[in-house]
Amino acid sequence: MARVESPTRPRPVVAFDPSPAVSSNGHRPVAEEPDIWDRRVAGALAFLRRRLTGEYEVDEFGFDPELTDNVFIPLLRPLFRRYFRGEVSGVSNLPLSGPALLVANHSGTVPVDSAMLALAVHDEHPLQRHLRLLAADLVFRIPGLSELARKSGGTLACNPDAERLLGTGQLVGVFPEGFKGVGKRYWQRYQLQRFGRGGFVSAALRTETPIVPVAIVGAEEIYPLIGNIKPLARLLGTPYFPVTPTFPWLGPLGMLPLPSKWLIEFCEPIDTTGMADQADDPAVVFNLADQVRETIQQTLHGLLKRRPDPFE
Amino acid sequence: MATVVVTGVGRYLGAHVAARLANDPRIDRVVGVDAVPPGGPGPSEFVRADLRTAEITRVIADARADTVVHLAIATSPEGHSGGRAGMKEQNVIGTMQVLAACQQVPTVRKVVVRSSTAAYGASFRDPAVFTEDTEPREVPRGGFAKDILDIEGYVRGFRRRRPSVQATVLRFAPFVGSPVDTALTRYFLQPVVPTVLGRDPRLQFVHIDDAQEVLHRSVVEDHPGTFNVAGPGVIMLSQAVRRAGRVAVPVVEFGLSGTAALAKSLGARGLSLDQVDLFVHGRVVDTTRLTKEYGYTPRSTPEAFCDFLRVHRLGAVLGRDRIAAAEQALLDGIRRVRSTVGGRDGAR
C-alpha cells in the first residue's frame, strides 16, 4: 500500500476557496492573477448559482462534496486550528488511495470530535480525502442534524453501509464506543469504554480493509460532563441530558466549548488481508477489537504525556 | 407460439407495454385485460374483465397463454372507484386471482409481477442503500407499501407451489417521464413546493421508458428472481426542487400522529403515508443485480428527472437563465464599484 511521506505540513487557512485544487498544487495564483478579488467574487457567485439551480452532484449516501469543501470545511478549520490549536501526527499511516477503516475514541458530551477528525483527515492527507463517518441512528432521527450528517458524508453505522463504503475504496471513520464514550463523566476521561459487538471489525475483515486506530486527545475537556438530568433526557429521547460546569447554568453561553488543546494521532494500520472468511468468527473479531482498543488506549497515554495541561 | 396476457392495460404503463410486445415479432399474440379499455395505443386484443373475480382464469386459459404480465397495481387510491378500499381490493385480491389463475392453467410458464421499492419502507434506521435481500426493519406504514408486501408474499407462495413456473418480480422506483399526471408531477407542478423542515431526502426515480424496456426483456428473455428497477444515482429533494425552478417551503415535521396533517401540508392530494416517510427519509436502492442479469442499465435518476421536467415543460418560477443573469449583473456591479473606488485610490 502506498504511504504518505511527509507526516505534517502547514496549511494556509483559507476562508473561502472555490477551487481548492489550484491552491493545493503549490502554485500561487496571487502573484500572477492581476485581480484575485475579482476571481474570488466570481467564484463565490458561481457557487451560489450552482447551489440555487441544483447543478451539483450528490452520491448515493447523500454526500455533497461541493458543499462540504466550500462551506463545512472552511467553517470547521478555524475551530480546529485556532480555537483548539489542533496538531495531527501519523498521517503517513493513512493510505494514499483505497479504503481504510479509521477507529477512534469518542468523547466530549457533544460529538465534536467526529467533525474534527474528518477535518484533520481532509487537511492533512496529501490528496485531501474525505472521511466518511458512521453515525448513530439518533443522528438520523433529528431533523436538521440528519441532513447535515448525510451532506457532509456521514451515514448510518450499520454493516451494509460500512461495507458498501469500504467496497468503493472510501476512508471510513467509526467510533465503536458510541454514546458510552461521548456521554461518560469527566473523571472517566481517556478511559476507553466497551467496544460493543465489534461490528466494525467484521466489516473490515469482510472487505479486507486495513484498520487504522486513531487517538484523539482534547475532546474530553470541551464540555466536562459532571451530571445527567435523566427525566429531561427521557423527555427529549436522548441518551443523556448533560450538566457541565457551564451548562445549563449559563444558558446558550454554556454551549461554548472550552478551548482545550487537541492532539490527533493516526496509528500503524492493522492488516486484514486474507481474513474475509473469519469475519463472523467471534474469537477473531473480539481479539482484533481488543488489539485496536489497546492501541488507542496506549496512544492516548502517550499523547497525554505530551500535553500535561489541557488548556496550555 | 408465444402468447402473452397483460393485465392493467387500462393504464399508461400496461397499455404501452402491451403495445410494445404486440410489435415484437417474437411474440405471436398479446391479450390485454382490464376493467377499462386502453385509451391510446394498446394490445392487439382486449378483453374486459374484473380482475377481482375468477374471470381472469378463463381469459388466460382461453388464450392458452404461456406468459402473464401482471401490471394492474394501483399506487394511489385516487381516480379509483371505491377509494383506498377499492385500491386494496384491486392490488391484493387482483394479484391473488391472477396468481391462482397462473397456478391452474397448465400452459403458463412465466409470470412477471410489478412491485415497488416501497417494499423496503423508509425509516431513519435503514441502511442508505437497499439491496434485494434487505428486509425492512419495520412494517412500512401506508396502504400502498402494505399492499406491496402482501403481493410479494403471494408471489413467494406461488413460487413454492409452482417451482416450474418462472416468476420475475420487478421492484420499480417511482416512475417519471410519462406524460400522465401523477401525485408526483402535481407535487412538482406547484409553484411553491412544501418540503419537511430539516429533512432533505435522497430520491430515486426510474424513467417510464426504461421500466417498459425492463418489462419487455422480462417477457422475451428469462430472468427469474426479484430485481430493483431504478435509475442509478440519486437526486436530493432540495436539488430536484431547484432544478425544477421551484421554491421550497419547509413545513414543520409533526409526531407520528401528525403525519396525516403533514401529508396535507405537503400539498399533494393522494399522497399516502409511505410517501410521507419517503419525503422525510428518502429511499435508494442498489441496481447491480438488474444490470448484471439484464445487461441493461436504466438512465440515471438525474437524467430521468431532467426528462420529466422536459416532458411537462414546467414553467420555472426561479429560472436558470434568470439566476445566471442575476449573477452576471451582480458581478458587473461589483466590478464597477470596485473600479470606481480603485480609480479614486489611484488618483490620490
Structure description:
The complex is a heterodimer of chains A (312) and B (348). Chain A is of the alpha/beta class and 312 residues long. Chain A has 2 domains: 33 residues; 186 residues, 3-Layer(aba) Sandwich (Glycerol-3-phosphate (1)-acyltransferase), CATH 3.40.1130. In chain A, strands 1-9-6-2-5-3-4 form a 7-stranded mixed sheet, with helices on both faces. In chain A, strands 7-8 form a two-stranded antiparallel ribbon. In chain A, helix 4 packs across helix 5, helix 8 runs parallel beside helix 10 and helix 10 crosses helix 12. Chain B is an alpha/beta fold. Helix content of chain B is 43%, strand content 16%. Chain B contains 12 helices and 13 strands. In chain B, strands 3-2-1-4-5-6-11 form a 7-stranded parallel sheet, with helices on both faces. In chain B, helix 3 links the parallel strand 4 and strand 5. Chain B starts with a strand and ends with a helix. The model of chain B has no long low-confidence stretch (mean pLDDT 86). Classes of the chains: A alpha/beta (312), B alpha/beta (348).
Distance between the termini of chain B: 94 Å
> CATH topology of the largest domain in chain A, anyone?
Glycerol-3-phosphate (1)-acyltransferase
Structural class given helices, strands, pairing of chain A?
alpha/beta
CATH superfamily of the largest domain in chain A: Glycerol-3-phosphate (1)-acyltransferase
Instruction: Give the low-confidence spans of chain B.
Output: none
| Structural classification of chain B | alpha/beta
What count of structural domains of chain A? 2
Mean pLDDT of chain A: 89
Radius of gyration of chain B, taken over Cα atoms and rounded to an integer in Å: 23 Å
Annotation, overall tally of beta strands of chain B: 13
Provide the CATH top-level class of the largest domain in chain A. Answer: Alpha Beta
How far apart lie the N and C ends of chain A?
Answer: 37 Å
Please trace the helix and strand order of chain A, writing H or E for each element. Answer: HHHHEEHEHHEHEHHEEHEEH
The geometry of chain B reads as elongated
Strand order, biggest sheet of chain A? 1-9-6-2-5-3-4
H/E element order of chain B: EHEEHEHEHEEHEEEHEEHEHHHHH
Estimate percent helicity of chain A. Answer: 25-40%
Strand content of chain A: 5-15%
CATH second-level architecture of the largest domain in chain A: 3-Layer(aba) Sandwich
